[in-house]
Structures are given as C-alpha cells and as structure tokens.
Design a protein that fits this description.
Elements (H helix, E strand, L loop, with lengths): L19 E5 L3 H12 L3 E5 L5 H12 L15 E3 L3 H5 L4 E4 L5 H14 L5 E4 L6 H4 L9 E6 L8 E6 L5 H13 L3 E4 L9 H17 L5 H9 L2 H5 L4 H8 L4 H19 L7 H15 L4 H19 L10
Parallel strand pairs: 1-2, 1-4, 2-3, 4-5, 5-6, 7-8
Antiparallel strand pairs: 6-7
Nicotinamide-adenine-dinucleotide (NAD) binds next to α1, α4 and β6.
Amino acid sequence: MPNTNAEKGDLAVNADEIRHIAVVGTGTIGISWAALFLANGFDVTATDVRPEAEAALRSGVDQTLPSLDRGGKTSRKGVLRFSASLEDCCRDADFVQENAIEREPEKVVLLSQIDAVARPDVVIASSTSAISITAIQKACTRPQRVVLGHPFNPPHLIPLVELAGGEQTEAWAIDLAERLYRRLGKATIRLNKEIYGHVANRLQAAIFREAIHLLESGVASAEDIDRAVTEGPGLRWALMGPFLTYHLAGGRNGIRGFMQQFAPLQQRLWAELGGPILDPALQALVVEAVDKAVAGRNVAEIAADRDRRLQALLIARSTPAQTEGAG
Ligand SMILES: NC(=O)c1ccc[n+]([C@@H]2O[C@H](COP(=O)([O-])OP(=O)(O)OC[C@H]3O[C@@H](n4cnc5c(N)ncnc54)[C@H](O)[C@@H]3O)[C@@H](O)[C@H]2O)c1
C-alpha cells in the first residue's frame, strides 16, 4: 500500500511551500509550462541541451505571457533563470517538471540524472505523452517521487493534467503534484493504472483514426471532417464528456434509455469503424489533404489563432452550469 502524504515522514516539501520550479527541456511544452509557472508567481530555472534554447525560451515566454493575463497585460510574477547545467537547474528547486525529448532510453537516463541532483523531498513530474512512469523511474535512486504530470498542448491554456504513478511511485508524490497543479488552476485527473498514451490522447486517437478512415474512404474532405467536429460534437465536448453526452442522448431516462434504445445501433457503428494503416501512401494522402485545408496558413499563424480563440472559449465556459432550478 503506498504511503499517504501524512506518512511520508521527513520528506518535508508541501505543495503550498513550493516557490521554485525546475523546467527540464524547453521545447514547445517546456516553454508553455514555464510561462504558466511564472505567471502564477513561481520562480523558474530552466535547462535544455540545445545551444539556442535560452533565446528561444525567453522569446517564447515573452510571447506566451500576455495570453495568461485576462487584462491583456504581460503578467510575469516570478523570476526566470536559464542554466545549461542540469545540476544547477534542479539543485534548489522545490518541484521538477521534465519535458525533454519523447524517447524512452533518453528519459530513463535523464530522470536518473535529475533524481541524483534534486533534493530528496522534491517531486519529479514528467510530461511524457506515452512512456510509462514505471519505465521512466526504473534507474532512479528515489523512484517513489517520480510521477506523471501530463499536460495537454498548450499547457498554459488547456486546463487538463493527467496524473499517474509507476509501480514504485508513492501516493504522497501524486497528491503533492495534484495540489500544485490545482494551485495553477489546472483540472487534474488520476489514472488508476498506467496505460499507453494515458486517457485524453487515446480518446483523441480514436477520433483521429476514424477521421482518417473517412478521408481514405472518400466519404468527405479533410475540411468537412474537421467541420463535422468543430461545428457539431466538439462544441458539446467542451462542456461534457462522452458519458454525460450519451446520458442526454437517451431522453428522459438518460443513459438507461440510451442503452435500451440504442445499444444495438452503437454496436453496429463500432463494428463499422475503420482501422486505417498509416503506411507511406496513407501518410501522403493525409498530408496532401491537410495542406489543401490550411490553404497556405503557416503553423505559427494557426496556433496563434487557436490560442486567441481558446482564451475566449475558456472565459465563456467559466459561466457556471445551470444545473439547479431548471425547467
Ligand atoms: N507536443 C505536445 O503536444 C505534447 C503534449 C503533452 C506532452 N508532451 C510531452 O512533452 C515532452 C516534450 O515535448 P515537446 O513537444 O515540447 O518536444 P520538443 O521537441 O519541442 O522539446 C523537447 C526539448 O527537450 C530538449 N532536450 C532533449 N534532451 C534533453 C536533455 N537531456 N536535457 C534537457 N533538455 C533536453 C530538446 O533540446 C528540446 O528543446 C515529451 O515528453 C512529450 O511527449 C508533448
């Protein structure tokens, strides 16, 4: 049975005492985490192995910070430092967020290096999209403090963080990470057991698989398949997930009514779903279709537009749900 937070004895850091966060790996995800931590008043020391990483981090953070201030002003409340030395980065940190390259052998070595230099009371969270924490923690001397803290891109805006432990993780470490993420306004979910790709990416992958199947089968264009999501179920998905959505599909009797009425239809739909093979020919077909759909707009332009509209959506969604007194 894992230890609870109260049982962790002399391991003293508690989430409310965290002031200084180490960000290891400053690509897309590391920059976004760093901006979020800084905007929330944490001091950040970051490290990366790329020679140009510091300049990219500083300009990336400067570009990201304004989107974290609802008043439209840059809101850097913490201090940002960069060090090319992993030891220097992690030595004084109260929490470590690792966001380096997604390759298992490299992550295993890197996590053991972080473990060797971070204070023993410090939780190390990995942003890994698919590698298991059981694998990542295996070369650590203190594997009990290694957790999954998987954000959704872009972490500075999307609330979700998926939490999980590996076989050697102790419960207090997950509790602490969860409390820290909640201080940042994140919405956390906990996985009861590890699974490849965690939860949200698996759900996305299921939709993407069928989208590619529909494209490959010539049912609709990439633009129209995307539109079928953004103008249809995607709008509801920002408010309720699949279980609640289907609860409402069953009429007055909710999910019971749905099961009575639609279980056979659902089973038939599942049997009909495609299983595309992403061979070079299908990859080329998808690339061509997306190139046509974006019509020359570059990735940075589309991402900036997404972030602007995401902010508006998050503000609109913060209106409380009217679940009482309706009707
Ligand atoms: N991109 C996404 O949508 C997304 C979403 C959630 C989680 N993640 C996860 O976050 C992590 C980072 O992804 P990304 O998209 O930012 O990748 P990225 O390639 O943009 O950045 C990775 C960075 O890590 C650096 N790096 C590599 N080895 C290092 C080392 N030993 N020490 C320090 N820095 C090192 C690289 O130089 C690079 O700057 C991955 O584990 C990925 O699975 C990615």
